[in-house]
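Students often ask why inverse folding is considered easier than folding. One informal answer: many sequences map to the same fold, so there is more than one right answer. In these notes we will look at a single instance of the problem. The structure comes first.
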């Protein structure tokens, strides 16, 4: 008998046809190998699955009466009843797995179904019971991790066979992944931090379909869990402070996204201007540059350099310049973005939209991100080619990632007043609704922008344009041209695009180099990848 682990790699056990690991036996001359556990299988067994007769170990080709598949290798045969059971398929009568449960589990065979106390789903015939804890579980559920880290939640979660006392008040609990009820009498993963109240179904934690969005990792013990430290992680320096009410705020800062000038704090709303971070109208306190057309929401200026988002990635880094396509909302954007080590980029609007929150439309809706959802969006009526939308946990209201971040107010040259996002057209007269910009029909079921003073109603697409989140003047490095280009939108005259020779009426790029008259449509010069250009 040989025991050369190195040479055993990539070979299979003759007994159970799975990969060999340490502790194997074999003969290189005959090219036959076994796991230690397979070599040590008893020749004769009495198994509760077939009590009438003893089962004899044989090696050949068999059709397993348990898993209904043909196997070659070791199996147990009852020659009287002509039944074969692959050795791996016969459930062991006792399973001891101290790492996952302190007591041993005993096999219980019953010709009927049961509800697993660990995962709250049905099982058939074969179950395991722990008589100390009075629980009945699937074989696979014995080895469920006790503690997991879930990307969606910032604390470790622990497995429970029934919800612990601090969840036992009169309320019912929803799973924070699928927003369906948690059965208090069965297993779940929950956060044990006080007041955290975060619970998920075991089936949602381990489902393969959820793996991409809600990645879980087993923790040996919850103390190994490290929270991401976001302090000392800011990208601005305070020059001067001031008092606003009871709070001290930074009155003047140097922000690394615009370090040539200092930025000054302002408390007024100026929805004519857009934030250079998130590209949304300035609707709350902000910083501005007194020399340049540069604005940042206070909240956007204070974003950490490294952070965790609810997305399935471990860490995101803040980038403050570049032109990119947001992975979630699909918009081409300039401004700040969060990027992972493997190149996934999201805009600030998407990055700061949580996994679940209350959205105030005409009525409030409690939304959560459902990666499987393919319904039509309640705002625009469109269905996304990619899966996933924000859906209401109580009704059939659905928003795709593009519409969930639509600005509540917007401006357009067509109307001198600020335009308000409206969720429903209750005006039954006239029978047909029109967009005052494109003069085409408007479906009254869907959202639109409205000016109360002029009673103008407009498609969101017509108000915002095709590229609402690219700021004019942003720089772009185009591979096909030696000089830096910047975004423009010509109003008075329309030079011809170098690519398609059509006039540049919509968003375009123009060369900054004196004497070089290169111009081209953005739609002609853009390339179809996540990140178009980063300056650093
Ligand atoms: Zn084996
Ligand atoms: Zn028999
Ligand atoms: Zn189970
Ligand atoms: Zn669930
Ligand atoms: Zn902003
Ligand atoms: Zn986005
Ligand atoms: Zn329109
Ligand atoms: Zn040029």
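Output (designed amino acids):
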């Amino acid at each position: 008998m040989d025991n050369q682990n190195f040479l055993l790699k990539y070979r299979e056990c003759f007994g159970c046809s799975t990969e060999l690991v340490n502790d194997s036996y074999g003969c290189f001359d005959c090219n036959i190998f076994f796991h230690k556990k397979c070599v040590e299988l008893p020749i004769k067994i009495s198994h509760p699955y077939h009590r009438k007769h003893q089962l004899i170990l044989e090696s050949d080709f068999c059709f397993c009466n348990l898993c209904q598949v043909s196997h070659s290798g070791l199996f147990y045969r009852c020659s009287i009843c002509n039944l074969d059971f692959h050795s791996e398929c016969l459930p062991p009568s006792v399973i001891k797995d101290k790492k996952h449960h302190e007591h041993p589990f005993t096999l219980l065979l019953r010709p009927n179904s049961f509800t697993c106390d660990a995962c709250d789903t049905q099982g058939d015939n074969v179950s395991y019971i722990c008589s100390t804890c009075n629980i009945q579980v699937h074989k696979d559920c014995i080895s469920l991790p006790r503690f997991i880290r879930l990307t969606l939640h910032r604390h470790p979660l622990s497995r429970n066979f029934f919800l612990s006392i601090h969840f036992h008040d009169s309320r019912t609990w929803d799973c924070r992944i699928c927003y369906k009820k948690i059965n208090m009498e069965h297993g779940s993963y929950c956060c044990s931090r006080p007041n955290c109240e975060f619970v998920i179904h075991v089936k949602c934690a381990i489902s393969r379909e959820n793996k991409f969005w809600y990645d879980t990792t087993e923790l040996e013990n919850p103390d190994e869990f490290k929270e991401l430290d976001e302090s000392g992680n800011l990208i601005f320096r305070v020059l001067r402070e001031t008092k606003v009410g009871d709070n001290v705020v930074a009155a003047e800062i140097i922000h690394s996204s615009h370090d040539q000038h200092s930025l000054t704090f302002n408390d007024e709303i100026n929805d004519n201007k857009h934030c250079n971070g998130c590209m949304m109208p300035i609707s709350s306190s902000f910083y501005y540059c007194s020399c340049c057309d540069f604005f940042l929401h206070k909240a956007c200026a204070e974003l950490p350099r490294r952070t965790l988002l609810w997305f399935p990635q471990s860490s995101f880094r803040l980038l403050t310049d570049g032109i990119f396509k947001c992975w979630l909302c699909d918009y081409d954007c300039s401004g700040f973005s969060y990027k992972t080590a493997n190149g996934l980029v999201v805009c600030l609007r998407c990055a700061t939209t949580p996994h679940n929150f209350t959205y105030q439309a005409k009525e409030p809706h409690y939304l959560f991100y459902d990666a499987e959802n393919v319904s039509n969006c309640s705002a625009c009526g469109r269905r996304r080619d990619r899966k996933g939308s924000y859906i209401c946990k109580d009704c059939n209201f659905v928003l795709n990632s593009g519409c969930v971040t639509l600005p509540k107010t917007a401006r357009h040259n067509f109307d001198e007043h600020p335009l308000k996002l409206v969720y429903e057209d209750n005006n039954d007269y006239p029978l047909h609704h029109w967009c005052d910009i494109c003069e085409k029909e408007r479906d009254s079921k869907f959202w639109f922008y409205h000016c109360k003073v002029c009673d103008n109603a407009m498609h969101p697409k017509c108000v915002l344009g095709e590229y609402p989140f690219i700021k004019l003047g942003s720089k772009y490095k185009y591979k096909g041209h030696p000089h830096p280009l910047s975004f423009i939108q010509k109003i008075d005259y329309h030079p011809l695009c170098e690519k398609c020779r059509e006039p540049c009426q919509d968003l375009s790029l123009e060369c900054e180099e004196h004497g070089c008259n290169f111009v081209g449509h953005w739609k002609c010069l853009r390339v179809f990848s996540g990140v178009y250009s980063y300056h650093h």
